[in-house]
Amino acid sequence: MPGSTRKSAATKATASTKAAATRKSAASKATTPRKSAASKASTPRKSVTKAVAAKKGAATKRPAARPGALAAGAARASGERARRRSTPLLGAAPADARAGSTTPSTGRDDTVTTAAATTTPATTAGAATTTSASTTAKHRPRPVAKAVPTTKAVARSGVRAPRATTSRRGTRSSGSTTRAQDAPVRVLTAVRDEPDDQAFRPGPSPVGGQTGASGTGPGVEELLTAGIGAIRVAAEAAGLSPDDVERHIAAMLAFVRRRLTGDYTVDDFGFDRDFTEHFYLPVLRPLYRRWFRVEVRGVENIPAEGGGLVVANHSGTIAMDSLMTQVAVHDEHPAHRHLRMLGADLVFQTPVIGNVARKSGSTLAANPDAERLLASGELCGVWPEGFKGVGKPFSERYKLQRFGRGGFVSAALRTGVPIIPCSIVGAEEIYPILGNVKTVARLLGAPYAPITPTWPLLGPLGLVPLPSKWIIEFGAPVSTADLGPSAADDPMLVFDLTDQVRETIQQTLYSLLMQRRSVFF
Predict the structure, then answer these.
(1) Are 103 and 84 a contacting pair, CB within 8 Å?
(2) pLDDT, tens digit, for every residue of 289-331?
């Protein structure tokens, strides 16, 4: 029993020893993280101190015990400079940037002077080299290839190369790349064996619409040239003279300029000569020459100067005959006279048509206005049938209606101007009237509501006139100067002259109808 007691006491002592060892290891583990954290926290401060000391002047604090390391760093730096001298310049800066540079490795015999100490870091950690502030060195490296920009690179840059300067300010050196402060960055390629006179020359800048290195588009001159060429091609395709087309376009542009600047005149009746000659008549000429193919006869019966009264038959559903007569007088007469037409009240009450009629020389069919125009030496035109002649059915074509009370004859007698009978064949067939809807006409306030073979069946296409062949003949003038102004107060004389003019026009119409081969040819 005493032996067992000693064994148990030894066992307990061993267990207590093991427990104490366990407590010591736990305490050591708990203190280890604090020490490691403290060591880690102190490490950056030591590295920062070393970096600051090396930056302030490693030359003054170099340890004398490491001369071999400095020699090895200097050797490596000189080898690096020799390798850069023998390597062609790829991606180097332009010559104008090199002119003010202080980097010695540019491939030229330059004298390099540094204003301050330049520190070149070594490739191995902890090695540094410093140069003196007033060091002068001459280098004669082997020739290297010239660097010139490609055309694509210049086009992408979009800037012009600056002039070369020799300023020593504003230039920095970093390795083998030199850049002036104000010089643009360019992408260059190395070209070997390039002559010196083939250096970089920037393309012309776009001035006056020319396309330069920046790739700008065509200018105004190029666009005008292209437009004129297109007009010439279109005119040739249409069978027209390109010169005539260009002349008409130039006249139209001049007309627009005058309208914008107000450089035109209007008389007391609203007649705008510039508007009539450069817009109104040119719009009607295609119908006159191409569509109706108007044939004019007896234009010599119209006086070259002084007043005159043209009296014509009226027909056609739409008063196209008065417009074609106006074009015929101006274009066919040697004096190119303007026909001042006398219209009804309805013409001038229409919003758009009334303004155009005023500007083209028309005026109200009243004796005071007619006498004033004739007395001033104007050539007037009148259609005495009025709406009765325009709206008559196709079955009564070329049969003259009543000429009214003869007011045009009294105006001619008071002013002493001749009366020129005018007969128009072809206008009756442009809109043949098959019927008249009087109820619709009364609702619209119109003198008639016609029904034609194309209207209203075809809708807007029904407004296109049929291309009938026209003949306009001016008869011999009837003189009134020998009768005197007092003859206008004689009703019988006025009636006789009115009937004489009407019969002359009617007989001429019958004669022209017999001479016409067909309606459309």
Answers:
(1) no
(2) 999 999 999 999 999 999 999 999 999 899 899 999 999 999 9
CA distances to 147, 359, 362, 386 from 353, rounded to whole Å, are: 75, 10, 11, 17
CA dist 370 → 173, 381, 517 (Å): 95, 9, 38
User: What token pair was written down for 136?
Assistant: 């002068």
Please say whether the beta carbons of 430 and 466 come within 8 A. yes
Kindly report, residue by residue over 172-227, the tens digit of the pLDDT.
Answer: 444 444 444 444 334 333 334 444 444 434 444 444 444 444 444 567 778 777 87
Instruction: Locate 210 and state its tokens.
Output: 């020319």
Instruction: Pull the structure tokens for residue 291.
Output: 């569509």
Q: What is the 3-state secondary structure (H, E, C) of 111-131?
A: EEECCCCCEEECCCCCCEEEC
How far, CA to CA in Å, does 422 sit from each of 70, 329, 382, 419, 475?
121, 11, 10, 10, 6
Task: Assess contact for 183 and 140: CB atoms under 8 A.
Answer: no
Give the CA distances from residue 132 to residues 118, 167, 295, 346, 406, in Å, rounded to whole numbers and listed in that order: 8, 23, 106, 106, 121
Of the CA atoms within 13 Å of residue 425, those in its CB half-sphere come to 24
The residues, any chain, with a CB within 8 Å of residue 281's CB and separated by 6 or more, are 326, 327, 330, 331
**Cα 487 to Cα 12, 299, 452, distances in angstroms:** 169, 28, 44
Residue 472 pLDDT: 97
> Where is 517: in which H helix or E strand?
none
